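Quick one - inputs below.
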Amino acid sequence: MNAYIPLVSGLMLSTLLFLIGLIGALVRRNFLFVLLALELMTNAAALAFVVGGSRHGSAEGQAMFLLAIAAAAVEAAVGLALLVAVYRRQGTLDLDRLNRMKG
Amino acid sequence: MNALYVTAAVVAVISAGLAVSRRHPVHALLYLTLTALALGMVAYMIGAPLAGAVEILVFAGAILVLFVMVVLTHRLGRETVEQETSWLPPGIWRGPLLLTAVLLGEFVWFLFFAGEETTIGSTVSPWQVSEMLFGPYLAGVELASMMLLAGILAAMALTRPGPSGEWR
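Output:
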């Protein structure tokens, strides 16, 4: 088994998922879908850590993966709290209609 | 082994594409859950069993379920109510069934047909990762716990109503 297969294909997988998430975050106009796409991007970036750590047989990659997942969890909690607050106050999740910062 | 790895990666990419393109929030979230399950498989295959377990337990099991709970309790799918009336046409089962069947097939193959050698490359055991996290990276773990605390406090403060119960 060629040792480079996991590295190249794993980084390709991580890049593809990141790009899909980026396209989603740029194209969708619903707050919930933008958050969802951001989670996908975080996950893809964390996967790159695992792939790199696996290539070099070191545990640092997975340690960084765990810290990145903790960051993704905080991001989801704060993002969803913002979403709930915005939805209760404005009654919409359309980001194009939420472009004014005044309360 | 390589075929299993590539299959799981393809399932992850397809379900991620479906997740960002669905109209109904719950469908999108469940496709993203499927992506997390497939990525757990990928992480296991490249010799990171702890990362695979965390992917499924924390990402699919906690973060995405949090999303689903918010959508369900706040009826955020209300603007797509016309779609909800035609919620379950027969064809809607095809995509999820096919993708989950692929993952189930891989799992069954693992249980019954795989030999001792089940990963590509070298395996980094959870023991080694824990030694790293609670040794040189202890400060990072403490910072992550503080970040989680700040996240909890921010979520509570953001969703708190005003003094008379109204939304400021």
